[in-house]
Design brief:
Blueprint lengths: L12 H8 L4 H5 L10 H10 L11 H20 L7 H13 L2 E5 L5 E5 L4 H18 L5 E3 L6 E3 L12 H27 L1
Antiparallel strand pairs: 1-2, 3-4
Helix pairs in contact: 4-5, 5-6
Length: 196
């Protein structure tokens, strides 16, 4: 279960959601460890656990930086699904990844066509997330994966009109509305001070 009791994203989007949520901004504000990819070993373990990288594949420090860059680019795209402007730097990062991974169409033995990276290293592992996004776009679920406007946690919007803005109304939604209310209440006080 996700914050507020939400169900996780369906199908291939679940993996992409988990990848983006390897960094938790809320926990950082509380002074807790937030980065799941703190070292090459941490990144390698996560990728192996999610069948994106072979068990014996090495991961270098510069590849951790690359994974973080891709993760944050994906987060910015998910923020665009939630009403923010699409970040051109994020687009460039993800396009470069797709190019370097040499994404190709392959007919599988089961008769299904898949898009897969030709690269087998970390670049290929990260590009598999882009392939999941493409499948979700074809299925029509891609725009429903969003990043919360407040904490940037990736969540799947199951609302009928696709209007969810926060990972959980009971958490980020209430905090955002309470903050806006406090600012509105302070506004008349400022006016009266300036009018004196």
């Amino acid at each position: 279960m996700e914050p507020g009791g939400r169900d996780p994203a369906p199908g291939p989007l679940r993996l992409l959601q988990q990848f983006v949520n390897t960094y938790n901004i809320e926990r950082e504000h509380l002074g807790l460890r937030t980065e799941e990819f703190a070292s090459p070993a941490h990144l390698r373990r996560w990728l192996v656990r999610h069948a994106l990288l072979p068990r014996n594949a090495p991961v270098q420090a510069h590849e951790v930086r690359r994974a973080l860059e891709v993760r944050e680019a994906l987060r910015r795209v998910l923020l665009a699904h939630n009403g923010r402007q699409l970040n051109p730097d994020a687009v460039a990062v993800l396009n470069r990844l797709a190019h370097e991974a040499s994404m190709v169409l392959r007919l599988r033995r089961d008769g299904r066509i898949r898009i897969e990276p030709d690269a087998a290293d970390l670049t290929g592992a990260l590009a598999q997330l882009l392939a999941a996004a493409l499948v979700a776009q074809i299925e029509g679920t891609w725009p429903r994966l969003k990043a919360c406007r407040r904490c940037q946690w990736a969540f799947y919007d199951r609302s009928r009109n696709r209007s969810a803005r926060w990972c959980a109304m009971s958490i980020c939604g209430n905090r955002t509305k309470a903050r806006a209310h406090r600012l509105r209440k302070r506004s008349p006080e400022r006016k009266s001070v300036t009018n004196v």
